[in-house]
Amino acid sequence: MPRVIAIANQKGGVGKTTTAVNLSACLGSLGKRVLLIDMDAQANCTSGLGFEKTPNESLYPVLLGEASLEDKIKETEFDGVSLIPSEFDLCAAEVELARLSFDAGDGKPDHHLNWLKEALQPVVKGRRFDVVLIDCPPSLGKLTLSVLIAATGLLIPLQCEYYPLEGISSITDLMEQLKSSGVNRKLELLGVLMTMYDSRTNLSRMVVAEVREHFGAKVFRTVIPRATRVAESPSHGKPILYYDPYSAGSAAYEVAAGEMLKRLA
């Protein structure tokens, strides 16, 4: 059965989408069949893989019951990687989920938040993919909650600075609440991936040391360096592995993908 991994952090600018795109490409290059789902209305995963932001191509019609999730899968030019794109209309999904919650008004759990889990069932049971990666919005709203309910693993990209460090407890607390309440007992912390690491600064080293002290073996041994080539690659619609395969950023994501496979196994 394919593992469904949420890539999430409520703080923006921590390398979440960059990680989603580049891990997908690296896993694909290792022979894995990967489905990347862009759940962020900014659609940066979509453009990062060379796709246009096209109306009605996101999962919003699936939420409304007007399409199936399988209908939205696009093949990419990158080995082993398929994509469900996003676009601006996905903003309305957050509003729609809030409306459904309000309409229920019965004090019971928001069962409609299971929509993504239910929509993913044909893909999970069909074994078409080895792993499903979902890039979450940079918030802990209802869309992100829907992803965490559907996922079996949580990967947290964390920038090597103190502000992102202060907020990591929010998403881990939410994960524990989902598990303890029985909403999703299968959800586990796959790991914390340190991003934008600058070996020249004491700050980066201090943050990494503090995160390792707190999370122990859950922190990936691989750290992703702050690299200009990694930042450039989305503007060309390519993961770093295809934009500059011999760069330090590409090497780091390849090693991180190998480490991720070991954790999934």
Please describe what this structure looks like.
The protein is of the alpha/beta class and 265 residues long. The protein has one domain (3-264): 3-Layer(aba) Sandwich (Rossmann fold), CATH 3.40.50.300. The protein contains eleven helices and eight strands. Strands 3-4-2-5-1-6-7-8 form an eight-stranded mixed beta sheet, sandwiched between helices. The chain is globular. The termini are close together. The model has no long low-confidence stretch (mean pLDDT 92).
Detail the topology: elements first, then pairings.
Elements (H helix, E strand, L loop, with lengths): L2 E5 L8 H14 L4 E5 L5 H5 L11 H4 L10 E2 L5 E4 L6 H14 L10 H12 L4 E5 L6 H9 L2 E7 L2 H19 L7 E10 L4 H14 L3 E7 L2 H5 L7 H4 L4 H17 L1
Parallel strand pairs: 1-5, 1-6, 2-4, 2-5, 6-7, 7-8
Antiparallel strand pairs: 3-4
Helix pairs in contact: 1-11, 5-6
